[in-house]
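Batch 3, record 17
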Amino acid sequence: MKQQITIVKVGGAVVEDEAQLSQLLHDFTAIQGPKILVHGGGRKATKIAERLGIETKMVDGRRITDADMLEVVTMVYGGLVNKNIVARLQTLGADALGLTGADGNILLSAKRPLKNGIDYGFVGDVKAANGQKIAHFIEAGIIPVIAPLTHDGQGHMLNTNADTMASETAKAMATAGFDVTLIFAFEKPGVLRNPDDDQSVISNITHADFETYKADGTISGGMLPKIENALSAIDAGVERVIITKATAIDGQHGTVITQ
Amino acid sequence: MKQQITIVKVGGAVVEDEAQLSQLLHDFTAIQGPKILVHGGGRKATKIAERLGIETKMVDGRRITDADMLEVVTMVYGGLVNKNIVARLQTLGADALGLTGADGNILLSAKRPLKNGIDYGFVGDVKAANGQKIAHFIEAGIIPVIAPLTHDGQGHMLNTNADTMASETAKAMATAGFDVTLIFAFEKPGVLRNPDDDQSVISNITHADFETYKADGTISGGMLPKIENALSAIDAGVERVIITKATAIDGQHGTVITQ
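Prediction for the assembled complex:
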């Protein structure tokens, strides 16, 4: 029987709000068995950048990362946000270890080429996730806490989307022989049939459902890449992906993505 | 026979200078066997603080760390400086892993009480270093890169002197059964008999020598706590401590501190 592992991805809005973070960390610690936390931190990066006089530019929700912004996200994601989460998890008895893709070479990426004429700057597209190395930490009882940063193998850090970090980590753990549950925790209770109605959670979405919902406009905008990420994880051997509210990460709520 | 390990501590002036850092990382990678790098980063923290409009206050060379400054050092030491070193070591074939005291709970500290009426703020005095945990990383072929931050076990990061981090780590590794060499790398070729003459390196200093040099004024100022740190490491079972120039960390140069 495969060893189970739960990977929870939580965005910046939650980790930067004291009350939400506190509950999230308690709920995360309560998850049985091996687990990994992948976090964002974009709002804090935007605030620190502003204080440093660095303008934040976004295209389709993705941060344009010039050299100055790379310094900011390396500081904020890898330092401020990551270490505060690690220190708090330690108080809950969770033996947390903060990681970026460079640490232990767990996530290697390539600087993104121009896309549709847009230069995203120092942004990394994941090339390889080292599931064996992460498994080694897991076997030692360690709980990895992963910041959305990778490295290019040539000495440079790269800013990397946290959803992608989570799904690539999930795929690598599946390949390493784990039974993987990947939970995307965010502000809504799941994928909604009607974005204005929190009661309209779609309980299950398959590849076929996704095509239908995309065609009829039920699912659109920022939810599209999230579900594409989820489906690509499923296709790569991840057992289940759940999209749910950050206050409901027990695996019993939200939208389940299956093949 | 005990397994050998080398711990190199290098200050901010070196890690923030591209040419010096490059050589240091090459020389560090060339050290045979298990090794640990402990780094500073104070100058970069001062620069970032200044850009954020946060005033840097020092007392006897130690940073007063209020809540704002704690954010800065957590970002700069734990994020910016640490991750850049880790990414660069990875390119040299060194499987580096960035750590603060909170990560894996390797260094626990207590917030410093008022000292001579001075409130140092969020500064930690090390209470416990977990040599067994660090040894586990070492056995996995990992090279820990430690930033000068600890945690208080109650969810807070604390700013901690990098020399102290290095000597406490060295003591813990000695207790864990390693034959430890601790190298303090800085801008001078060693402890100098005449501070204006780089040729006047004192080759060996014992407890008794130190008392003499202190009494006659040969050794004074910032060198005093450095040698006290070194002697406390020796007393706690560290085999040898070497104080040397950052460009000469091969163990053949500098001042050797012995019992």
